[in-house]
Design goal:
Helix content: 25-40%
Number of helices: 5
Oligomer: single chain
Order of helices and strands: HHHEHEEEEEEEHEEEE
Number of strands: 12
Strand content: 15-25%
Largest sheet: 7 strands, mixed
Shape: globular
Strand order of the largest sheet: 3-2-1-6-9-11-12
Length: 181
């Protein structure tokens, strides 16, 4: 399926979710994630600060931020910078996403695990983002374990991937946990 068709289909499906369904799905997905060896062993984790239409990361970050070192991306031109998570140092940034402020950027090479947002994933680790390529540029060459999280309906049969697209290593949804070989 073409990426634009997937984006349109998933966006329409997300509008049907109630607040309770969104909260329940996030709890289930992150409950699965926190039981994985990847999460248990990782100390430096790049998360994303969720948008209203994305699986919410907020409760998960608050739950674990005292025991793990979380980082968030910040848009800088056409690239993403990585900064430590500090709830008191968030400001509304590009695309109306709360982003960290400051100058203490970190390298993608320092991350042990990356929770990668996407519009959709397939069972081979391909992902469809929002179309700007920020995460593909950030993840290119990263050796960190890349974990995709989403609603069950965000897992599609097949994505027409481009050569520059970076795959995830694991996909976790409300009822599925795929480890990509």
């Amino acid at each position: 399926m073409k990426k634009e068709d997937i984006r349109r289909k998933i966006k329409a499906r997300k509008t049907l979710l109630s607040d309770e369904e969104k909260m329940s799905a996030a709890e289930r997905v992150f409950s699965i994630l926190e039981q994985t060896a990847d999460f248990m062993l990782a100390d430096r984790i790049l998360m994303y600060h969720s948008l209203p239409d994305e699986l919410s990361t907020l409760s998960f970050i608050k739950k674990w931020h005292d025991r793990k070192h979380f980082y968030l991306p910040r848009v800088n031109g056409v690239n993403l910078e990585i900064l430590p998570y500090d709830e008191s140092r968030l400001a509304l940034g590009s695309f109306h996403i709360e982003e960290p402020t400051g100058t203490d950027t970190s390298s993608i090479d320092d991350m042990e695990m990356i929770v990668v947002p996407a519009v959709a994933y397939d069972r081979t680790g391909n992902r469809v983002g929002r179309g700007k390529g920020y995460y593909d540029r950030l993840l290119a060459g990263s050796r960190a374990r890349k974990i995709g999280v989403g609603y069950d309906f965000q897992l599609v049969d097949m994505i027409d991937a481009d050569p520059h697209d970076v795959r995830v290593d694991v996909v976790i949804t409300e009822s599925r946990h795929y480890i990509i070989k």
